[in-house]
Amino acid sequence: MKKYIDFQTFHFHWADYLVFAAMIFLSTGTGLFFAFYKKEKAIELGQQDIDSGEKRRKNDFDTSNMNEYLLGSRKLKIFPVSMSLVGSYVSGVTILGTVSEIYYFGTQYWMIVISIVFMAVAVSKIYLPVFSVLRVNSSYEYLEMRFSPAIRSLASIMFVMDEMFFLPIVLYVPSIAFNQVTGINVHVISTVICIICVIYTILGGIKAVVHTDAWQILVMFVSVMVVVTIGCFKAGSIGDVFQTASEGGRLIFADINPSMYQRQTLWGVLIGGFFYWTSFNAVNQTMVQRYMSLPSLRKAQWSIFIFTIGIIAFISVCCFAGLLVYEFYTKCDPMSAGLITHDDQLLPVFVMQTVGHYYGVPGLFIAGVFGAALSSLSVVLNSTALVMLEDIVKGCLRLKLTERSSTILVKGCILILGVVAVALVFVLEQLSGILSVATSVTAIAAGTTCGLFTLGMLVPWSNSIGALVGAIAGACISGWISFGSQIAFANGYVTPHKLEISVEDCPGNVTMPDNVYIDESDVFPLHRLSFHWINPIGVLTTVLVGTIVSFISGPTVLKKLDAELISPVLHRYLPKECFPPSSITNEMTRENTATHLLNDGRGKGGSETGESSDNSGKY
User: Fold this and answer.
1) What sign has the CA pseudo-torsion 355, 357, 359, 363?
2) What's the distance, Cα to Cα, between the start and end of the chain in Å?
3) Is-contact 275 535, C-beta < 8 A?
4) C-beta neighbour count of 157 within 10 angstroms
5) What angle in degrees, to the nearest 10, is found between the helix axes of 186-235 and 78-89?
6) N or C: which end of the chain has fewer CB within 10 A?
7) What local confidence, expressed as pLDDT, does residue 611 receive?
8) DSSP 308-339
9) By the 8 A CB rule, do 177 and 366 touch?
10) Cα angle vertex 517, ends 516, 522, to 5°?
11) Under a CB-based contact definition with an 8 Å cutoff, are residues 482 and 443 in contact?
């Protein structure tokens, strides 16, 4: 019992504040470095390329300044981009949410790593080759090329709205962790972290974002590994951790219950996880922008490979950390004992209780959580600003801006998004279960937009009418399910069925909470679905409705279709009229385009090194 008595006695030491401050200063310093020194060198090199006669590709930005600021002149390196891709997904939501998910619902979620492997194959072979050949600035440019400007505008507006909902979640999670160990108000913390992130994102552009992400992800991984290592030592051994988890019913890897109402099943994790991860990593602008900052398809595919290894390793560590937390609190659930108020505070409390007396370690952990938040936040700010410029202002409103106006617009968008994110943090204080909330909200936009891109790349006869109707249907059904589920949960009509917990060793007079679950049979069936199924339903609804409506309204004539707009996995089935004449490129033919794009990593845009070649002249 003694290990629970001093539960709240550990708080930040001056060494913890020092470690945390170092991470903050490094973030800001990186932004300043790339804002001035590196930026000046890059612009000089870009101007030399222009002066030497290099032709600008048709889809690059109008000026070297904006091209450098938003895409790094398409000359970034594989490893920092790969780490930035990890940072695009891994945030405090992943760290704290995954731990609480394992603690309360078992290890079935761990099987998401299998879905991630299949996602990597799908993204690199189906979607990425199309973007690489077209050399888009924004992924939503593709929708205008394939369908119409209206479809592009619809998808880009959904992306902006989605990211606006996601930003406060990214801010709120580390604020909870910091509040737990310092007592500083959540809103003060979220405001400070947002200001810091906005500053270095505005000053340094994508290069600052990518390179800052790289070391922030390193700090994050090291911090979690340190906590896990010390936790294992205190638990006795890894075997003891799994033994305790098994006795507590937490080791669940193959729950084949076919019910779509159960929160975590093997089918829900594998199928829902694959759709969700593919939706996010295949077409979301936060990811595509980083793919396009690399000079070639082959390097972009390598970045996905490294990203996959990194994300699987990190999620696995977080899942194991969930088992560690359960082993420590197996006899005293901290939520039931009133020691925490949110389930997402489990890991911060565990850290303070187990390693709080090691000065500097709690600071390292909180720095890792904040690093994850800063990474995700900067990625979203930078990508959303690009979408506002390219898709909303230039694409939807058809406005032509000067370089100065474009710069003011992009940086102004970053500033406004930061203010909105801080304001929306107040809403999140009323919500619990960060992992499911984030997944459900994101699934609305992610499912619909992924459905649109899938319709365009894998259904050659689809048309703009089918795409529009399919997108509306997908968004409506996803929104109906997601928000309906949240309302049902808020009103107590649906409750998560958590695994058994214990309070027998808790200090004081703590009673076991009653696990009495109400009858949910009267709740509308779609509002009882596990959050894993929202995204697949959105994607499939968009594709199926879009396909049917396209046939009814008049399918696209395949012979008039540009093969570059279709995924190379289908090129062998397209008529030869879809391919450009051999005088434009010797490689783009019906017989060899699919193999060329999938295996060689060289598209119509240029050579393997990303330098200009004869094949890229028309760009």
Assistant:
1) positive
2) 70
3) yes
4) 16
5) 100
6) N
7) 37
8) HHHHHHHHHHHHHHHHHHHHHTTT--TTTTTS
9) yes
10) 145
11) yes
- Which residue did the predictor score with more confidence, 489 or 415? 415
Please say whether the beta carbons of 349 and 252 come within 8 A. no
Give residue 45's pLDDT band: very low, low, confident or very high (50, 70, 90).
very low
Amino acid at 517: Y
Residue 60 sits at φ, ψ, to 5 deg, of -75, 165
In the prediction, which pLDDT does 39 show? 54
Which pLDDT score, from 0 to 100, does residue 601 have?
43
CA distances from 355 to 199, 307, 393, 560 (A): 33, 30, 50, 65
Amino acid (1-letter code) at residue 188:
V
Other C-beta atoms lying within 10 Å of the C-beta of residue 527? 19
Residues 367, 372, 375, 381: what is their CA dihedral angle, to the nearest 10 degrees?
-110
Cβ(447)–Cβ(279) below 8 Å? yes
DSSP string, 240-300: HHHHHHHHTT---S------SSSSS-HHIIIIIHHHHHHHHHHH-HHHHHHHHTSSSHHHH
Q: How many residues are there in the chain?
A: 619
Nearest Cα to Cα of residue 417 among 387, 372, 447, 449: 387
Token reading at 21: 């401050």
- The region, left, alpha or beta by phi > 0 then psi within -120 to 50, assigned to residue 3 is alpha
Determine contact, residues 616/605, Cβ cutoff 8 Å: yes
Single-letter code of the amino acid located at 474: G
Query: How many CA atoms lie less than 13 Å away from 41 in the CB half-sphere?
Result: 5
The Cβ of residue 551 has, within 10 Å, a number of other Cβ atoms equal to 13
Higher pLDDT, residue 387 or 509: 387
Q: What gap in Å lies between CA 108 and CA 532, rounded to an integer?
A: 12
Angle at 58 between CA 87 and CA 378, to 5 degrees: 20
Q: Taking a C-beta distance cutoff of 8 angstroms, is the pair 471, 552 a contact?
A: no
Return d(Cα 571, Cα 569) in angstroms, integer. Answer: 6
Token pair belonging to 386? 């690009």
Question: Which has the closest alpha carbon to 240: 345, 320, 314?
Answer: 320
DSSP-based three-state secondary structure for 602: coil
Looking up tokens 């994790």 gives 269
Lowest mean pLDDT among 43-47, 108-112, 352-356: 43-47
* Statement: residue 290 has pLDDT above 60: yes
Closest CA to 272 of 111, 85, 142, 127: 111
Q: Give the pLDDT mean for 205-228.
A: 82
Tens-digit pLDDT profile for residues 454-501 = 999 999 999 999 999 999 999 899 888 887 887 788 777 888 888 888
* pLDDT tens per residue across span 552-611: 999 998 888 999 999 999 999 998 888 877 534 443 344 444 444 444 443 433 333 333
